Amino acid sequence: MRMNHESLLDVALKLDRAGHFALDVSIQTPLAGVTVLMGASGSGKTTLLRSIAGLEKAACGHIQVGDVCWQSSTYSLPVHKRSLAYVFQEPSLFPHLTVKQNLEFALIRSVAKSSLDEQVHLIGLLGIEGLLERRPEQLSGGERQRVAIARAIFRKPALLMMDEPLAALDTQRKQEVLPYIEALARETDIPILYVTHSIEEAARISDRVVYLQDGRVQTQGHINEVLERVNITAPEFGRLGSAVSGSVSEQLEQWKLCRVTTTFGDVLIPNCNRLVGEPTKLFIQANQVSLSLSQPVDSTLLNNYVGHITKITSASESALATIQVNLKGVLILAQITQMSLHALQLETGLQVWVSIKSAALMS
């Protein structure tokens, strides 16, 4: 069923850079939650984002944000009049201002005028309440990016655009910032367009994924559906894995574990800093999933489930094979060796036990 246009981001754009690169994209996506743009380097993700923002003047076509036209064949809304906020890889904070002053500057420019005191919830949501009197040089990379995100959403945009906001951070800082972006997506009503190479980022924050290749939309849908249709194995995409939605059902304080209830059963993960009843998304790394033909006994692996193999992807030049298993309608990827694939004589339709290492799970 076609959604009401007032709740859609409707984009159809073309851009030709004299034979060097061509963008030809048509997407309709809900103006809600997080839409992730994925694809290899040079696929057109950032170009598409810049075109929607009005920064690529040569892009022609139409952009409809809800009931507001940003661009048509005869009209282009000036960049400064588009209700958007843009978060880049590098947080461009004013170095001579404190965090508080940086945020107040954003509030002054916001259409919906408010004071910093009225933004207590958002400040707490991003965990920057203890940083307000510091200057940017006194912050870590992750802290600076969280302030940049706060400054962007303080403007109350109709669309928040994030262009690989974690790309400049090391692994530790990425893991520090990612939960705040998840919380932002979960607790605000600002739709987000998020560009990333990372399967893990897409799995943890996306409501839907648009996969670009050579300037065109190759496929779109839930992250697991996209991973099923597209063979993403290049190192630039990071760790291969699966996205699983669930809710926290129990905190096992004695063991510092958290029980998450999903469609296919309960999953035990390291403490996830979420309240019982709160929704969460898990990223299950494919190389931390093992398969066996019988139920594991006397094993250190706490998460064990039975399912059926639906797809096997292997290449003769690789030592590894990717196995897709259906667990009560949820598709889980396992990455195993070709040797194991041959030894167990795995094939589509076969029933297998899936074991997931708790220590490798992230939420």
UniProtKB/TrEMBL annotation:
PANTHER family: ABC TRANSPORTER I FAMILY MEMBER 10. PROSITE patterns: ABC_TRANSPORTER_1, ABC_TRANSPORTER_2, MOP. It comes from Marinomonas piezotolerans. One of its GO terms (cellular component) is membrane. Residues 298-363 form the Mop domain. GO terms for molecular function: ABC-type transporter activity; ATP binding; ATP hydrolysis activity; molybdate ion transmembrane transporter activity. The keyword Translocase applies. NCBIfam families: modC_ABC. Gene3D superfamilies: 2.40.50.100, P-loop containing nucleotide triphosphate hydrolases. It comes from the Bacteria. This is Molybdenum ABC transporter ATP-binding protein. Residues 6-239 form the ABC transporter domain. The keyword Cell inner membrane applies. Keywords: ATP-binding, Cell inner membrane, Cell membrane, Membrane, Molybdenum, Nucleotide-binding, Translocase, Transport.
